[in-house]
Design goal:
InterPro entries: Acyltransf_C (IPR032098), Plipid/glycerol_acylTrfase (IPR002123). It comes from Elysia chlorotica. Keywords: Acyltransferase, Membrane, Transferase, Transmembrane, Transmembrane helix. One of its GO terms (biological process) is phosphatidylinositol acyl-chain remodeling. The protein is α/β, with parallel strands linked by helices. It has a single domain, classed as Glycerol-3-phosphate (1)-acyltransferase (3-Layer(aba) Sandwich). 52% of the residues lie in helices and 13% in strands. It has 12 helices and 8 strands. The protein has an 8-stranded mixed β-sheet, sandwiched between helices. Helix 5 links the parallel strand 3 and strand 4. Helix 3 packs across helix 12. The protein is globular. It starts with a helix and ends with a helix.
């Protein structure tokens, strides 16, 4: 049961969460507005600046998760930090996105700023929706009647956003929604169509993965132009006892501080089948394996030796906890607070004063 000390801690963490949302969002939006002319005059410089600013935003998000232990194992994906890479991750709760950001943030380079996120359209209306809109992440709409048009729109976006903006990593949650909301429908679909019936994940939706691979996946195709995706990371995110945490609860600190685990398995994109039926079988098999691995984890509290010792294309990493760089986090907050102060003094305050003067003259 929470005591007085806990409520003080919750309050302080909430204040940090709220205030950092204000000054971090203002910092990103204002700087990107000031550098907007470069989007036409010098687009490469503009998107390098945006990459840095997005890494700052992710650094801010990482600070909200302080105190929650996260361990990772499997392939050493830090070797791919500067390689063109598609990351797929199972989806269970609102905490999944900041946790993936944390895992990628600790890898550095392209895994931080040069990443394109493909997510459900509802996230457009969250606190960081405006950031994703400015940086041209892709918001996907579900529905059979718009599936084809959405995939065509995604293919165009991969050319205009991924290729032209110098992005290297792409992140997708292929299940298309949280496990608790999609499991029943997925199992009914699987039973009806003679597919595997899964318990700890749902059958992945192929549309976005197929669109990305067919447009920018290795090997080269007429549509992929340059810098095709070379690697696919299958990331498995595990919460203790199959009880996913939620983002707000972690930010405020009232969620239990149980160990969270990532497991990674890397594949070469050129070895993945591109025809939809074969790609469907390949990706479904990955999720069957993921479901078995999660079943074993929930029983034993860790990934089995079989999962950790299976044949790999990358060297395996020694299982380890992710460490928060306190100094870097302080610098991130200092940069955002300093930017907020400068923008207020030299932009917002003078503009507000000018507007109020005009109002007084008119009325």
């Amino acid at each position: 049961m929470a005591g007085a000390t806990d409520y003080v801690r919750y309050t302080l963490r909430f204040l940090l969460f709220f205030l950092s949302n204000v000054y971090a969002l203002s910092c990103y939006v204002t700087w990107m507005a000031l550098f907007a002319p470069l989007r036409i005059l010098a687009p490469k410089i503009h998107w390098k600046i945006e990459s840095f600013m997005f890494s700052v935003i992710q650094g801010m998000i990482v600070t909200w998760l302080q105190g929650y232990p996260v361990m990772e194992c499997g392939d050493d994906i830090s070797l791919l930090k500067n390689s063109e890479t598609l990351m797929l991750c199972n989806h269970q709760s609102t905490a999944d996105t900041p946790l993936v950001m944390l895992a990628n943030y600790t890898k550095g380079c392209s895994a931080i700023g040069n990443t394109m996120w493909i997510m459900w359209y509802i996230f457009k209306y969250t606190n960081f929706g405006i950031v994703s809109l400015i940086r041209q992440d892709f918001f996907i709409h579900n529905g059979k009647d718009i599936r084809i048009s959405e995939m065509e729109r995604l293919k165009k976006e991969m050319k205009s956003s991924y290729l032209e903006h110098g992005r290297k990593w792409v992140v997708i949650f292929p299940e298309g929604g949280f496990l608790r909301k999609r499991r029943e429908a997925s199992q009914k679909f699987a039973e009806k169509n003679n597919h595997p019936i899964l318990q700890h994940v749902t059958l992945p939706r192929l549309g976005a993965v197929e669109a990305v691979l067919s447009t920018v996946g290795e090997p080269f195709t007429p549509a992929s132009e340059t810098r095709p995706l070379k690697w696919l990371i299958d990331a498995t995110l595990v919460y203790k006892d199959a009880k996913p945490l939620d983002m707000l609860g972690m930010c405020i600190g009232y969620c239990p501080r149980d160990l969270i685990t990532f497991h990674y398995k890397a594949y070469r994109v050129k070895d993945i089948p591109r025809e939809l039926p074969a790609l469907t079988d390949w990706l479904y098999q990955r999720y069957v394996e993921k479901d078995k691995a999660l079943e074993s984890f929930y029983k034993n509290g860790k990934f089995s030796d079989e999962v950790l010792s299976e044949q790999r294309l990358l060297r395996p990493m020694v299982p380890h906890h992710l460490h928060f760089d306190v100094l870097l986090n302080i610098l991130v907050h200092a940069f955002c607070i300093g930017s907020f102060y400068l923008h207020y003094v030299f932009i917002y305050s003078p503009v507000f004063s000018l507007v109020m003067s005009l109002v007084h003259l008119i009325f």
